[in-house]
Write a structure and sequence with these properties.
174 residues; alpha+beta; globular; 8-stranded antiparallel sheet; 4 helices; 8 strands; single chain
Length: 174
């Protein structure tokens, strides 16, 4: 289904969007756009690679809990700002270290010739945050690829991403 890699390497790049700095990542899948949309929006599919959500997205928010980082990770509110199935999802949540500041996330999907490209972007304005956010999303998006291709998720080790990718993301935001 996908074009993943065997050896992890940093894939995120800096991009300016509407006056805000984002780290942008892409992954491709040999799958229909509806299938990739389900992998990033349906709670049971998300559970395979990152976490679960509960609630009614039509109400504007859901409760999300990361499952890939242990059982004691607290639930957080994810606000759904835009949802255009199966092409675009825009969300926000409070930053864990400063709830007054919000993370901004954008997921865009496009399908051509049987290949769906997922473009994931997170607003990041601080190089210190980029040093952990960048490796984190490379790790989780590689887990998404593995989950969708039937690969062994336990073979994906966060220690291969962090701290090895810190310098790449520090430089990207410098």
């Amino acid at each position: 289904m996908s074009t993943g890699t065997t050896a992890p390497h940093p894939t995120g790049r800096r991009e300016e969007r509407d006056g805000e700095t984002f780290l942008v990542f892409e992954r491709t899948f040999r799958a229909p756009i509806d299938d990739v949309w389900a992998a990033v929006t349906e709670s049971d599919r998300l559970a395979r690679w990152i976490g679960v959500w509960a609630g009614d997205p039509a109400a504007g928010s859901v409760a999300f809990r990361m499952t890939a980082e242990g059982d004691d990770v607290p639930e957080e509110t994810i606000w759904v700002d835009e949802c255009v199935p199966p092409r675009r999802l825009v969300m926000r949540s409070a930053q864990p270290d400063d709830p007054a500041r919000l993370w901004a996330w954008q997921v865009d999907l496009a399908e051509a010739d049987g290949v769906t490209t997922l473009t994931f972007a997170q607003g990041v304005t601080d190089t210190v945050l980029a040093e952990s956010v960048g490796p984190g999303w490379d790790y989780y998006l590689d887990r998404l690829v593995a989950a969708e291709t039937g690969a062994d998720l336990t073979a994906i080790d966060f220690d291969d991403y962090y701290p090895a990718f810190q310098a790449h993301y520090r430089a990207a935001l410098a």
